[in-house]
Every structure is written in structure tokens, then in C-alpha cells.
Amino acid sequence: MRVFLYLIVGVVLFYIDSIIGLLIPMHLGHFEFNFIPHLILLYILLITIYRGFGIGLIFAILFGIVTDVYVGSVYGLYMFGYLALVVIFDKFLKVFYRDYTMICILSIISIIVFEIYVAIIYAVIGFANID
Does residue 86 carry a pLDDT above 90? Predict the structure, then answer.
């Protein structure tokens, strides 16, 4: 029963993540900034910490496929990114077990690594120009 609750919370966070990404573009001068909170990635990482590695992997696959279908540009990009981050996060978590400062720092680093990963894949394929 708890797994269904975790799944429902994940779906709600997925839609909130999408809505925030659409509603909060910010303009500073001639530049436009889009804030993407990655709530679903943070949720998967927290599930990995508090519910276990196996459930984190299942949620990474499930929400990675859903995100790939929703975004629709490159299939498998988010799924493999989420999977890799869950595995790496779990390996680092064994060293810093439940130290809240390190969990916060690792979560921020995970988001940065994920954004770099997506930018590199898009640049290789030719969807994005990185100057």
C-alpha cells in the first residue's frame, strides 16, 4: 500500500515539476532564464535514501520512461540518467550515511551532473548549441 502512495506522490511531483517549468521563466535584460526544479529527481534520490536501493531503481526506471515519453525528444535519456544517478548516489551514500549536510550537497551535485549530462547528449545529437 505504501508503494502506491509513493507512486501517487511521484506522479503529483512530476506534474508540479512540469507546471513550475512552464510558469516560471524569468527575464533579466535580454536574457531568459528557465528554472527547472527537478522535483522528480530529488524524490527518486530521497526514495533511494529512505526506502532502499531497489525501490529507487524501480522508480528511476518508471519515472525515467514517463519523462522520456512526456518530453519526447530523445528516448532513454532521462531513464539512463536517473538510473546512473541512483547508482552513483547510493555508492556515495554508503560513505555519508544519513548525514543531512552531505545528502543536501550530494543532491545539488546530482542535479548539476544530470543537467551537464543532458546538455552534453543534446549537444552531441545537435539539438542544442553550446558556445
Answer: yes
Whether residue 40 is predicted with pLDDT greater than 70 in this model: the reply is: yes
**For 3-72, what is the HEC assignment?**
HHHHHHHHHHHHHHHHHHHHHCEEEECCEEEECCCCHHHHHHHHHHHHCCHHHHHHHHHHHHHHHHHHHC
pLDDT at 94: 78
Q: How confident is residue 29, by pLDDT bands cut at 50, 70 and 90?
A: confident
Q: Residue 14's CB: how many other CB atoms inside 10 A?
A: 17
Of the candidates 93, 86, 91, the residue with the CA atom closest to the CA atom of residue 59: 86
In this structure, which amino acid lies at residue 110?
A: S
